[in-house]
Automatic annotation (TrEMBL):
It is a multi-pass membrane protein. The chain crosses the membrane at residues 21-39, 51-73, 102-122, 129-152, 158-177, 214-235. It comes from Lysinibacillus capsici. PROSITE patterns: ABC_TM2. This is Transport permease protein. The keyword Cell membrane applies. Keywords: Cell membrane, Membrane, Transmembrane, Transmembrane helix, Transport. InterPro entries: ABC2_TM, ABC2_TM_bact-type, ABC_2_transport, Nod_factor_ABC_transporter.
Length: 244
C-alpha cells in the first residue's frame, strides 16, 4: 500500500507537465506520418509501416527515460526525497514507485502509435496483440535507464544526458535503417546493447517470425534487470548518505 501511495503521487506529478507528455506521444506520430510520405517516393521498402512502426514505438519509449529521470531528479533537487526517507520504504520500493506510473504511459504510447500506423496503412492482425505484450516488457528497460540517470544526476543534467541517450540508442537500435547497411564495428556494438534487440523483437512478432523473438527479449530483460539493480543500489547509497 505504501508503494501504491507513492506511485499515485508520482503519477500526479507526471501529468502536471502535459506539454512534455504530449511531446513524448506527439513526436512519434509526426515521425510516422513523415516517414510514410517519404516511403511513397522511395524505390525500396525502407519505411514501410510493418518495419517502421515497431521501431518508432520503441523510440517513443526513450521519452519514458526522460520522464522518469526528470521526476526523480526534481525530487532530489527539491529535497522531497530527503523528507520522506524517514518512511519505511526501501530503495527497491522507491524505484518501483517511480516505475509503476510510467507503465500506463507506455501503454498509451503503444496504442496511439498503432492507431496512427493503422490509419497510415498498417494491416491489423493477431500479431499486433502479441507485439503489444512484448512492447510492455521492453518499456521498463527505458524507465530503468531514466531512474538510474535521475539517481545520479540533477533534473537539469538529465535533460542533457537524455539528448545524448536518445540519439545514441536510436542510431544503435536500427530504427531508421538496417544496421547491416553500415556493418563493421558499429553493428557489433549495437548487437552488444539491448536497443537493437528491442526493435528486432517487436518487428519479428509483427512479421510472425516468432523463432527470432526469444533471444532478443532475453537480452532486453537481462539489461532491464541490470539497470534496475544499479538504480536501486545507487538510490540506496543516496538514502544512506542523506541520513548520516
Amino acid at each position: 500500500m505504501r508503494v501504491a501511495a507513492f506511485a499515485t503521487r508520482n503519477h500526479k506529478e507526471i501529468v502536471r507537465d502535459p506539454i512534455t507528455l504530449l511531446f513524448g506521444i506527439g513526436l512519434p506520430i509526426l515521425l510516422l506520418g513523415l516517414f510514410s510520405v517519404m516511403q511513397k517516393n522511395m524505390p525500396f521498402a525502407l519505411y514501410e509501416m510493418n518495419n517502421l512502426t515497431p521501431g518508432v514505438i520503441v523510440f517513443s519509449f526513450s521519452f519514458l527515460t526522460l520522464f522518469s529521470g526528470m521526476l526523480l531528479g526534481k525530487d532530489k533537487s527539491s529535497s522531497f526525497l530527503m523528507r520522506i526517507f524517514v518512511s519505511p520504504l526501501s530503495a527497491a520500493d522507491y524505484i518501483l514507485g517511480y516505475m509503476i506510473p510510467l507503465l500506463p504511459i507506455a501503454l498509451l504510447q503503444i496504442f496511439v502509435c498503432l492507431a496512427t500506423a493503422m490509419f497510415l496503412g498498417l494491416p491489423f492482425n493477431k500479431s499486433i496483440l502479441f507485439m503489444i505484450l512484448a512492447l510492455l516488457i521492453i518499456s521498463p528497460l527505458y524507465i530503468s535507464c531514466g531512474l538510474l540517470f535521475g539517481t545520479l544526476f540533477t533534473d537539469k543534467q538529465v535533460g542533457g544526458i537524455f539528448a545524448i541517450f536518445v540519439n545514441v540508442t536510436t542510431w544503435l537500435s536500427g530504427t531508421w535503417f538496417e544496421l547491416d547497411m553500415i556493418g563493421g564495428t558499429f553493428q557489433k556494438i549495437a548487437q552488444l546493447l539491448p536497443f537493437m534487440h528491442a526493435v528486432n523483437a517487436a518487428r519479428a512478432i509483427l512479421h510472425a517470425e516468432y523463432a527470432n523473438v526469444f533471444y532478443s527479449l532475453i537480452v532486453v530483460i537481462g539489461y532491464t534487470i541490470i539497470m534496475t539493480i544499479l538504480a536501486i543500489f545507487m538510490f540506496k547509497q543516496k538514502m544512506q548518505g542523506s541520513t548520516k
